[in-house]
Structure formats: structure tokens, C-alpha cells
Design goal:
The complex is a heterotrimer of chains A (about 150), B (about 260) and C (about 450). Chain A is α+β, with helices and mostly antiparallel strands and about 150 residues long. Chain A is built from five helices and five strands, in the order E-E-H-E-E-E-H-H-H-H. The relative contact order of chain A is 0.16. Chain B has about 260 residues and is an alpha+beta fold. In chain B, the strands form three sheets. In chain B, strands 4-5-8-6-7 form a five-stranded antiparallel beta sheet. Chain B has a four-stranded antiparallel beta sheet with strand order 9-10-11-12, with helices on both faces. In chain B, strand 10 and strand 11 form a beta hairpin. Helices cover about 25% and strands about 20% of the residues of chain C. In chain C, a hairpin with a 5-residue loop joins strand 9 and strand 10. Chain C is elongated. The chains are: A alpha+beta (about 150), B alpha+beta (about 260), C alpha+beta (about 450). The interface between A and B is medium-sized, with 25 and 25 residues.
């Protein structure tokens, strides 16, 4: 099996039904997607698979053989931040930060498809993502700030 | 270390049926929303896993006067399905889950530990849908109630859903837990009368025979609704107590019947 | 002082948004083993026997541990504060809650560890559980300890606060208003499940990566369990993925450490989401009964409170929580006479612990509902009723502490304005000042002297 993760091709050696989350974290050491529940209930593991937001904990790697996977590490070089990362930083949208990678990937997918997403559309895109720290207000505001700036 | 399961990856419905055989020792993997957590935590150690995602079992076909929905069709692609199936599907979990969870998986979902599953069973029951499946004894087509009663162990290929029927749909969500529907009632007016089915009422969705009989006997919706819980073994789970469900079910029945007009 | 009032960027902000923040499960070291804990399926049972022999021989298993492997198994979190230790970290002859830890394994991977758990044979004698704190003193209920189901705050079996002559207040009242308030247990539910990684170093020390909220606390507890010098344990904290009180019990470190020492390999144990929700400690459920002696025009003359707190199977921090609770049973209001008693009750629920506002949220929940209940019964505006009884500079708290600068009046007025609730002129113009004039009724004069009236020592029950 092969995956292209953040632009880099990898041959995958994990068992076929290993979750993408565990392949990323334990085989490839891509650590930003988190294991919040491993039941699909929290959204902390969300990554982009061929540009679409998906729960990595529910995705058997065999089902996405050959796909392109994007995580937070692929959003920028980490020095010059992508707009969604800058917005989360400037807007204090991350407190403990554990839910943030999933939130940012879901937001990235939304903004790629709907650059001027409304508040309702933002909330719908993030409705499967739980945050126990922030109360969500600053997270939604951070995504909104990117829609208003127009950049993705 | 336990041995990994054998993976079966058919690329057509015929291959899928052949690979499934009589189903002995085969676990079906659709979207993975129910199966993957069980595999990851080691609760299930299947010997053989059949992946249906690329077996030509997805899609909605309207061509023969009946709406045929492939079992592997993701919930997020049911917007054009007959109502209230489309509405019920839209309220399951969130869009990331709906993008991969399948109608077949939802139909075959067993009761969860803490909350009901299989929200589409009730609309399918009320709509008079028919399930085409393969397994021991070969291929067969039967109504949803018979399929659910027949127990697990068959591979669903497609579901035929009659379209264009007047409907009512009322549901009670538990707020703050992304759309966990604790109770939902579907009422559908068909040629043979009104069918009423509810989810969240037990290990699987059920037709509300008490309500249907009362309606058939000429009862007004409010009276028919008083028979809502007849014959049901209402559950107490993480979402609601049996008592609460018993109080709410007649109200949802009334609302659903009210939408029927 | 240029930081005060300035909007400073989070020092960890860039790491958070670039996915570089390291949480405990993001650490891995060579040779790391996976730990899984064996847990009781019963609410209450005697443990007849535990046989780990098959698990120990299972291929891929490096170590199995039970209470026999823990140098000091019973360590009290608050022993230094005089609260007796009562909880075996690994169950010995009984289990008191569903999910209680009995032992654990360290294996080459999680799947093997899970397999090995199933090979540990535990024989139980299941017992009827005690689950309803309202039956705390019922001798027909199962008793968790020889001395019953109620914690003993030497010299009483409850925490009491007594001020003034409550009986006189109840005689004088126009109306007695009673209410029962039962806030339910709440799981802290951080998105990051708790866990740790314990590395036995070649110099004999232990390095412990942990997401505990309380590093020195965990160091002390761990040192006691392992009977080693605290200096021999190096704790590496880092970013906690949410705690809210749920990561102060040092739930994972002792087992992981014992297994790491036995296996002579690093051991990582991260809770599953199920363990976090079902076995990790929670905010307690409480039962609070309030009776208030009230005048028709809305003065609270006196208050009696009975509190029952569900500690779960073991004490942990409950005695401290119920103490804090007791201080706050007048809420943000001045009640000149009160008698409160708070009982800490052991049950066969998961042991309860801290969560934000530990002990106090249950008091404010009950008090605020009671205040609205009184206002409703007396047909008074609930905002103005609160303002009337609001504490002011110069008033005494239930514990007779002098309040110098409370802000209740200003806060309620600001809230009323913010939500557009109109206040009558009297209450709109009320000043947050020491009592005088119409805000100094007879029963609020000489609060310090009156606090000593009645029977300050109180009866035992």
C-alpha cells in the first residue's frame, strides 16, 4: 500500500485494516492528528484525504491505498503560517491545542470549497469537532476571519 | 501478536456475493464507522473482512420506477433519496461521518452500548422498502422488517425504496451531542394505509402496530398515538430513560401523523 | 509591568497551530511497551483469587503486576492534611466500583496486552452495591467499611458550619421555603485521554512523562507508592490536553512504573476514551437540601442545609471538597443565622475528584435555585430579591469571615443591564456600601455578636 502524506510518498507496512490515524502516528510519526476517542466522536483525528475531511481513526488504510493525505504539518513550513494557522494563533483559538489540528483541517477543507463560508456553514463544517476548553467562540471567529480576508 | 484478518476486496457485486458466500466467518466493512473502533480496541478479531467500498454497490438508480439504492452508498449521498429517508440521513452524526458511513451499514447496525444506532431503519420500515441480500440460501428480496428479523449474517446488495409517498417525520435529539437522535417517528401513507415506525425504541427500529391498527380502525391521530408504546420494550440508555421515551413517543407520533395531513 | 493589560501571544501558540506541541501520547522511545489495565466488571465484589500465570507466559508479554508488586499500595492523596489513606491503588481483597484497577500487563503492543488481560483469571464473589447517597445511614444498605458509609471528620461525621441562632430565625419567619437540589456527576472529559510513559534509566532513576495537572503531587504520590526517594523520579510534564480536575489523581503512573521496573523497559499507558469516561474519576453528584426562614418582604433570616456528597468507593479529595462546599452555602448573599451539615458518603460509584470549582459549584447551583424558588413563592422579582439579600462590605460569611470588598451588588446590576432586565429605582440605585438605612434591618445588626448566639457547637445529627 502507498500513501502520499503531505506531498511525500510512503510505502505503508502496517496491516491493511490499521486505522490511518495509527499509520500516521505510529508508522510515519506524523503526530498532529490526535487520538481523542478513536471512535469517530470527537474530530481530533480529522485529516484531508484527497482534499476531503475525514476521520483518520475510522479510515482503514487499505481503503485509501494510493490516496493523498494532508495534515497540519502539510499546511505550511511552520515558519510562514497558512492563513488558518495564523488566524488560530492571532485569535487565541487554541487553548490546550489538542482539538486544534482536527479543527484546522476541517476548516481548511471548508474554505477550499467555500472561501466565503457563512457562520452557519462554518458551524456545520465543525459540528463534529468537540472542544472542551475554548467554548468554540474563538474557533469560529478565527475561521470567519479567514473568510473575510479572502485568503485560504 | 494476533494475526491480521484476511482481506477480501471484490470489485463488482457478483464478486462481492461470491466472496461473501454463506457469510460464515465474514465481517463486512462498509464505511468503517462502526467496525474500525471495534478493530482498533481489539474487541473484534475477525478472521475475514469483506470491503464493499469498491464493489460497485454505491449509487442511486431511478430508472425502473423504483428507487434502488446501493448498499454501500454513503449517507451523505442520500439527498435525492425518497423522503423522509433523505432528511433522516442528513441528521446522522456530522458530514465527515456521513461521507463514509453507508446505508447498508446503517440498516444492519446492531444496538450500540450506550445509544441507539441505525437511524434509517425506521424510515425504511415505514416506506415499505425491500432489501436485496445474499448469503446462506442465495440471493433474496424481502421487506425490511423480515430482513431485520432474520438476524445478521447476510450481505446487503441494494435497497428498493418506493418514492413519492406522503410522509411525516418527527424526531427528538439530545442536544450538545451532535445529533444523537434518541427517538424518531416516521409515518408514511401508502396504498395499503398508514405505516408508522420508530427508532430509538429498542435493539432495532419497530413498526408501531398499535398505532397502525388504531388508524386502520378509523381512530383520530391523537387517539391512535396513545397506542404508541404497545408491544415495545423501551430502552434506558445514555440518552434517555425508558420512562422518558414512553412520555415522548406518543407526542412524536402525533407530530408525524399531523404532517401527513 | 508592561505585560499587565497587554494582549500577549500564547508562548505555545505557534506550536499548537503547527501541530508541534507534544502531548504525552506523542512521546515514544525505543523498546517502549504497551500497558493495559485489568478492571473490575462489578460495582462491588470480594476478590477471591487472582491468577496471572497464563498471562505471564503469553508470548509478547514482558510483565504482569498486581497489588503484590506495589511496594506501598495504599497511599492517601491528602495524608499530609490528616485524611487517612483508604484506597488500594491495585485492588487487594475487594473491588468497590466498576472499572476499579486490579492489575495490569506490559506487552510488545496493545493488541497483545489486551489478549493477555483476558488470560488473567479473577474469581469474584459479587455483592449488592450501595448506590444511593440518600440512604447513607440506612443500616440495611450494604456497608462499604466496618464503620459504615460515612466519612469521619474527627470529631464529627460531617462538616458543619454554625452561625447565629437558627431556631430563633425559624420561629420568627413568615414562610419557610424548602428545596432539594441534586446536581449530577459530571465527567471532565478532556479531549486528551490521560496517560504516561515511564522510562527506567540506566542509573536507576525513573523518567516519567505525564499529563498530570499536578507535577509535584504526582511525584510525591508516585514516590510513596514505589517507596523511592522523590529525587529518584524525574517528571517531565508538558502540555496537558485539558484536565479540568480529571488529571490530578495520578491514575496511570504507579502501574506503568511498576511494570517498567519489572520489565526493565519503558512502558506507556494511555487511557482509551472508554476508560477516561467510565473509569477515570468524575465530579461528584450531590444532594443538597435547603430550608430557609424568610420574611414576606424577602429577607432571609436563617438557613439550614443538609448536604450529602457522593465520594464513590474511596475518599480521595472528597473530604476537602465538602469542606469547601460548606463555606459557600450562603452564596453571594448574607444569611445571619445558619446551620449546615455536609456528609461525605462512600458508595460503589467511581471515586469522585476535583473539577473546576470543586465543591463550590454544587453549593452555588443549590443556592441560586433556592433563591429563585423563594422569589417565586413570595412573588418578588428574582433579581431584586437577590440584590436585597446580597452580601455587602462589612457583612459576615457563614464562617464569620469579615467581607471587605464583595462585588455582588455591582455584578447583579451589571448583569440586569446587560440582559435588559429592568430594575425598580430602589434597586437600580442601590450602592455597594456597608449597610445603613433600609438595608440594615434589625436581624442584620451586630452580625459579629449575633453570630455567637444559639448553639454554635451544634448537635451531632
Amino acid at each position: 500500500m502507498h500513501l502520499i502524506v503531505n506531498g511525500v510518498e510512503h510505502e505503508i507496512r502496517s496491516d491493511a485494516l490499521t486505522s490511518l490515524l495509527r499509520v500516521l502516528r505510529e508508522e510515519l510519526f506524523v503526530m498532529s492528528p490526535k487520538a481523542g476517542c478513536e471512535q469517530g466522536g470527537c474530530g481530533a483525528c480529522t485529516v484531508l484525504i484527497d482534499g476531503q475531511p475525514r476521520r483518520a481513526c475510522l479510515t482503514p488504510v487499505a481503503a485509501i491505498d494510493g490516496a493523498s493525505v494532508t495534515t497540519v504539518e502539510g499546511l505550511s513550513d511552520g515558519v510562514e503560517l497558512a492563513p488558518i494557522q495564523q488566524a488560530f494563533f492571532d485569535g487565541y483559538a487554541a487553548q490546550c491545542g489538542f482539538c486544534s489540528p482536527g479543527m484546522m483541517m476541517a476548516a481548511t477543507a471548508l474554505l477550499a470549497e467555500t472561501p466565503h463560508a457563512s457562520r452557519e456553514q462554518i458551524m456545520e463544517a465543525l459540528e463534529g469537532h468537540i472542544c472542551r476548553c475554548t467554548g468554540y467562540v474563538k474557533i469560529i471567529a478565527a475561521v470567519e476571519s479567514v473568510t473575510k480576508a479572502g485568503a485560504v | 501478536m494476533p494475526a491480521p484478518p484476511e482481506l477480501l476486496t471484490p470489485t463488482s457485486p457478483a464478486e462481492a456475493a461470491a466472496a461473501f458466500g454463506d457469510g460464515a466467518g465474514v465481517t463486512v466493512l462498509g464505511g468503517g464507522t462502526i467496525l474500525l473502533p471495534e478493530l482498533t480496541c481489539g474487541r473484534l478479531r475477525p478472521a475475514r473482512v469483506l470491503m464493499v467500498g469498491r464493489a460497485g454497490l454505491s449509487g442511486i438508480d431511478n430508472s425502473n420506477g423504483v428507487v434502488r439504492i446501493g448498499a454501500a452508498t454513503p449517507l451523505g449521498e442520500l439527498a435525492e433519496a425518497p423522503e423522509p429517508l433523505a432528511t433522516a440521513a442528513k441528521h446522522i452524526a456530522d458530514h465527515e461521518i456521513r461521507a463514509v458511513g453507508t446505508i447498508g451499514g446503517n440498516l444492519c447496525a446492531t444496538a450500540g452500548d450506550a445509544a441507539p444506532r441505525g437511524d434509517l431503519q425506521a424510515p425504511l420500515l415505514a416506506l415499505g422498502a425491500r432489501v436485496t441480500s445474499v448469503g446462506a440460501g442465495g440471493e433474496k428480496s424481502e421487506d425490511v422488517d423480515a430482513f431485520l428479523e432474520g438476524g445478521a449474517g447476510r450481505l446487503v446488495l441494494s435497497i428498493d425504496v418506493p418514492g413519492g409517498q406522503p410522509f411525516g417525520y418527527a424526531r427528538l435529539d439530545r442536544p450538545h451531542t451532535h445529533h444523537y437522535t434518541m427517538l424518531a417517528v416516521t409515518a408514511v401513507r401508502s396504498a395499503d394505509g398508514v405505516r408508522v415506525a420508530a427508532s430509538g425504541v429498542g435493539t432495532r427500529a419497530r413498526r408501531l402496530h398499535g398505532v397502525e391498527s388504531a388508524l386502520g380502525g378509523g381512530a383520530a391521530p391523537a387517539d391512535a398515538a396513545t397506542h404508541a408504546a404497545e408491544g415495545l420494550d423501551l430502552p434506558t440508555d445514555a440518552l434517555a430513560s425508558a420512562w422518558y421515551r414512553e412520555q415522548m413517543l406518543p407526542l412524536l407520533v402525533q407530530r408525524a401523523l399531523g404532517q401527513l395531513g | 509591568m508592561k505585560a499587565v493589560g497587554a494582549r500577549l501571544p500564547r508562548y505555545d501558540g505557534v506550536a499548537h497551530v503547527t501541530g508541534r506541541t507534544k502531548y504525552v501520547a506523542d512521546w515514544s522511545v525505543q523498546g517502549m511497551l504497551a500497558c493495559k489495565g485489568l478492571r473490575s466488571p462489578h460495582h462491588s465484589a470480594r476478590i477471591v483469587s487472582v491468577d496471572t500465570s497464563k498471562a505471564e507466559k503469553h508470548p509478547g508479554v514482558f510483565a504482569v503486576a498486581t497489588h503484590k508488586d506495589m511496594p506501598k499500595n495504599i497511599v492517601g492523596h491528602l495524608e499530609a492534611l490528616g485524611v487517612p489513606a483508604d484506597e488500594p491503588y491495585l485492588a487487594e481483597d475487594e473491588v468497590r466500583y466498576k472499572g476499579q484497577l486490579i492489575g495490569g500487563v506490559a506487552a510488545i503492543d496493545e493488541a497483545t496486552a489486551i489478549e493477555a488481560l483476558a488470560l488473567i483469571d479473577v474469581k469474584y464473589e459479587v455483592r449488592e452495591p450501595f448506590l444511593d447517597i440518600r440512604k447513607a445511614f440506612d443500616p440495611d444498605q450494604p456497608q462499604l467499611t466496618e464503620k459504615g458509609n460515612v466519612f469521619f471528620y474527627d470529631p464529627y461525621d460531617h462538616r458543619k458550619v454554625t452561625k447565629g441562632d437558627v431556631d430563633a430565625a425559624f420561629e420568627k419567619a413568615d414562610v419557610i421555603v424548602k428545596g432539594s437540589y441534586r446536581p449530577s456527576a459530571i465527567e471532565q472529559a478532556p479531549i486528551e485521554p490521560q496517560g504516561c510513559l515511564v522510562i527506567p534509566e540506566s542509573d536507576g532513576r525513573l523518567t516519567v512523562h505525564t499529563c498530570t495537572q499536578a507535577m509535584y503531587f504526582t511525584m510525591g504520590v508516585l514516590a510513596e507508592h514505589l517507596q523511592r526517594a522523590p529525587g529518584s523520579i524525574k517528571l517531565v510534564g508538558g502540555t496537558v490536553g485539558g484536565g479540568f480536575g480529571g488529571k490530578v489523581d495520578s491514575a496511570t503512573e504507579p502501574l506503568a512504573a511498576v511494570l517498567a521496573l519489572k520489565a526493565r523497559r519503558p512502558v506507556r499507558w494511555i487511557f482509551t476514551r472508554e476508560e477516561e469516561m467510565l473509569c477515570g474519576s468524575v465530579r461528584a453528584s450531590w444532594h443538597v437540601e435547603i430550608a430557609d426562614a424568610v420574611t414576606k418582604d424577602g429577607w432571609i433570616l436563617g438557613r439550614k442545609v443538609l448536604t450529602l456528597h457522593d465520594a464513590g468507593g474511596y475518599t480521595r479529595f472528597s473530604s476537602y471538597g465538602a469542606t469547601k462546599h460548606s463555606f459557600h452555602l450562603a452564596g453571594a448573599y448574607t444569611v445571619p443565622a445558619l446551620r449546615t451539615r455536609a456528609y461525605v458518603v462512600w458508595t460503589n460509584h467511581v471515586p469522585t475528584t476535583a473539577m473546576r470549582g470543586f465543591g463550590v459549584t454544587s453549593a452555588s447551583f443549590a443556592v441560586e435555585l433556592q433563591m429563585t424558588r423563594i422569589a417565586t413563592m413570595l412573588e418578588l422579582d428574582p433579581w431584586e430579591f437577590r440584590l436585597k439579600n446580597a452580601n455587602r462590605p462589612g457583612d459576615l460569611m457563614p464562617t464569620r469571615k469579615l467581607l471587605e470588598d464583595p462585588s455582588t451588588i455591582d455584578t447583579i446590576q451589571a448583569c440586569a443591564e446587560a440582559v435588559g432586565h429592568p430594575l425598580s429605582a430602589t434597586y437600580r440605585d442601590m450602592k455597594n456600601e456597608p449597610r445603613s438605612g433600609e438595608w440594615l434591618p434589625d436581624h442584620l445588626r451586630d452580625q459579629a455578636a449575633n453570630a455567637k448566639l444559639g448553639n454554635p457547637q451544634g448537635a451531632a445529627r
